[in-house]
Input
Amino acid sequence: MKKALITGASSGIGFEYAKHLDQNGWSLDLVSYSEDRSRIARESFQDSNNNYYHLDLSRKDSVLELLEKVDCPDLVVANAGITMVSKAGESSSLQRDDLYYLLCGGVIDLIEGLLPRLREKDTSRIVIISSIGAVTPMPKSSLYASAKSGIYAYGRSIGEELANEKISVTISLPGYVKTNAHKRAGLDHLEKKIPFWMWVSAEKVVRMTEKASLAGKSTVIPGLAYKLVKPFLGLDITSKLWKILNKRN
Output
């Protein structure tokens, strides 16, 4: 039986990824911050042998604890994260440290800690859930975007490095995904403001990301609308349009 390690597994993309793999006979090590959400989520899974860990992955000691407890997986899905809105110059050092470690530094520590064991397997896969914000400006979310950009660059780089070691690395760059993350970040107004065609379901993100990973692709941008605008990301006119669509109070 194949085993997957999924972080941020009690909601959103992580939860849908866990459901998808569970339905396909995988054994799962599921990591989440919230015990309450995890308790509700586990009712959806078929395999009673799944393992559940409740850890704050914005803390280095939690990542080290996880590395000590889990067996080496065949698939790593690094998904844990939060959405943070902060004007430039208005965040605290603690907020920045926690966000950067959760979204970038901690992901690197987790993957680097697993790599010696992953190399011992015949084949293995790594999936990193980054964000479209890694490749396009996000005013008032600069910290989030820069952390996602950092883990995107890391994933692309190790993907090239590990290409001949039977370890594939795929970075997913979703845009607006229909999850509770925006609501928890106080951004629930975006559901009405952002055009419907810019939203992608978590299920679709998982389907497209897993398909890309199995095909050995280095990156995937889930959703037709985002795929169509990919060649124009970074251009001034695209950045201006994105800024208008994402204008926040």
Remarks:
- The chain has a mean pLDDT of 84.
- Residues 3-245 form a domain with the Rossmann fold fold (CATH 3.40.50.720).
- DSSP finds ten helices and nine strands in the chain.
